[in-house]
Design a protein that fits this description.
Helix content: 40-55%
Distance between the termini: 17 Å
Radius of gyration: 18 Å
Largest sheet: 5 strands, parallel
Number of helices: 10
Bound molecules: adenosine monophosphate
Number of strands: 8
Shape: globular
Strand order of the largest sheet: 2-3-1-4-8
Order of helices and strands: EHEHHHEHEHEEEHHEHH
Length: about 230
């Protein structure tokens, strides 16, 4: 299965992707994480991406698509991928369709995590990331208690440069201008499901898992009232 986790900055895509990946056993591709890895390794791509990311802008489509194309060559993606943060523009969505078609695959489902702008600002302004394990925490809602990967002791928490208030405002503007048109793009294809992203983390995961179970049942059924149809 190839699935897109769609949503604004801070909508919980990364958190849900980690949880879903463990349960679905498919690869997780986060474009933001791939950029940050390149920045940490000071690659040419990382240096270029940083100039955009620090301003809350999108990295140009050609660069982003090329990075995803390269990632899709890895064998771990053959059983399916959970895309997180990609695509973010219409040209990226079309490029992804072409990439998957060339692999005789297609996007099966787009999960739109819907979260209000006020909630996004609240979440991002308090978000802290661990330099050691990369896990996200929150000053107020999810303070560090223990490391999910047993790698750190909460000593190296930092605020992402692009989570600073003025950059968050720009990221939201860019999201509404360039990324929300994708909702209509995938709605027209009949593969978009919206999920309330403001519930508890566990609740959101369960809602997504139920949708996926319904989709799988629908794939194996010719009944037009099957959950696949109902979920959409
Ligand atoms: P994220 O971790 O998904 O919030 O991404 C962090 C930043 O990386 C974004 O604000 C963008 O600057 C950049 N980025 C991530 N994914 C994409 C994408 N698909 N297209 C362009 N820029 C991206």
């Amino acid at each position: 299965m190839d699935i897109i986790l769609f949503g604004g900055p801070g909508s919980g895509k990364g958190t849900q992707a980690e949880r879903l990946q463990a349960r679905l056993g498919i690869a997780h591709i986060s474009s933001g994480e791939l950029f940050r890895e390149n920045i940490r390794n000071t690659t040419e791509l990382g240096l270029l991406a940083k100039t955009y990311i620090d301003q809350g802008k999108l990295v140009p489509d050609e660069v982003t698509v090329e990075m995803i194309r390269a990632r899709l060559r890895h064998a771990d993606t053959e059983a399916g991928v959970l895309f997180d943060g990609f695509p973010r523009t219409l040209p990226q969505a079309r490029a992804l369709d072409d990439l998957l078609t060339s692999l005789s695959r297609k996007i099966d489902l787009v999960i739109n995590l819907s979260v209000s702008d006020e909630e996004i600002v609240r979440r991002l302004s308090g978000r802290l990331i661990c330099r050691e394990c990369e896990a996200p925490f929150h000053k107020e809602f999810n303070p560090f208690q223990s490391c999910p990967e047993n790698k750190c002791n909460g000593e190296f928490l930092y605020q992402r440069e692009d989570d600073k208030p003025e950059t968050v405002r720009e990221r939201l503007r860019v999201f509404h201008q360039q990324t929300t048109p994708l909702i209509e793009y995938y709605q027209k294809k009949g593969i978009l499901v919206s999920v309330d992203g403001e519930g508890h983390v566990e609740q959101v995961t369960e809602t997504i898992m139920n949708t996926l179970t319904g989709l799988e049942a629908g794939m194996h059924s010719s009944d037009p009232s099957s959950p696949k149809t109902a979920a959409r």
